[in-house]
Hints:
Layout: E1 5-6, H1 18-22, E2 25-26, E3 31-35, H2 49-64, E4 68-75, E5 84-94, E6 98-107, E7 110-120, E8 143-144, E9 147-148, E10 160-165, E11 180-186, H3 195-202, H4 210-213, E12 217-228, E13 237-247, E14 250-259, E15 264-276
Antiparallel strand pairs: 1-9, 2-3, 3-5, 4-7, 4-12, 5-6, 6-7, 8-10, 10-11, 11-13, 12-15, 13-14, 14-15
Helix pairs in contact: 2-3
Amino acid sequence: MNARYNAHLPVTSGIVDVKEFLGMQRVSETTWRFRVTERLMTPGKFLFGGCGLATGIVALEEASARPTIFAAAHYLSFAPLGAEVDVVVDLAVQGNRVTQARATTYVEEREILTVNAALGTGELNAPVPWITMPDVPAPEDCAPRVMARLLNNSIFDHVEARVAIGRPFTELDATLGSPVSAIWARMPDHLEPSAATLAIFGDLVSGGASQPLGRPTMGRSLDNTIRVATLEPTEWVLIEIHMLALAGGFAQGTGFLWSRDGTLLGTASQSMVSMFWEPSSA
């Protein structure tokens, strides 16, 4: 194995829910607070975009007492490691079935990101699935997603990932590949996915450009959207990634999030700044 890479072993303790994982506390009727810790940050030592979206979702669901239908984050700035972050909720419209709302995240008085969301429930269901999960090996039969050592001490130490479709980073040799890849992922001890945990998994789409380009890339999210279909208990979530375009340094991608049993949990989509990343320079 290349010396620049090592397999990440998630650091976990007892069973915790996503609110506890994010370290969120409600401090008023409209405000929640958390601190950017190592397990919520990117390797660049600022808040991981998926965790930022997840904190907005947790606050909005608790404030509205309704489940998420969709939530979209627009990233404006960075929250560095150690920053105390406030999430302020505004329930703009509360209908009979749907609440339209926003959560705005601040570090001191600086706006970091805004989450717009719809929350609620309905009754109509499709009689059969409209799309199906790809045929992939079980997570136990897939190779671990080996990450560069530079990515230690970040969110990637707390999400275990295995390559179901595509090439490991160590086998990217500049040969062009497929824009479709898939990763099994889990947060050990988190057995029941929520919209917030799907938001964290969905941000893995940002690394999908590495597969078609055949070289490691870095992706900085400009936006991040999660749409929830059906939540069911599953330890592993399959993120089926479709990279759609790359032009002018900006990439677009979509992820289908599947339970181990083949239920569509939701979809994720992103626009991102993409650039090549050379591990040898780390």
